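In this section we walk through a basic example: taking a raw amino acid sequence and producing a predicted 3D structure, encoded as discrete structure tokens. The instruction is simple. Fold the sequence below.
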Amino acid sequence: MPNILTAQDIADFLRISRKRVYELMQLSPSHGGIPCFSVGKSRRVERSDFEKWLASRKAS
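The resulting token sequence is shown next.
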């Protein structure tokens, strides 16, 4: 997995739709959303942030 992830990378990994990934990116991280940042019109996620988010979702 690359250090910077796209919505498609996350969708492929989680086996969910890219649309659902974008919905999760729109949520605040404090409300269960995936922490992300913008690069132009695109959204990206640092792999370490995604791994932390995933671990927190497993614990819930």
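Looking at the output, two observations stand out. The two ends are 24 Å apart (CA to CA). The helical segments are 7-14, 18-26, 47-59. In the next section we compare this with other chains.
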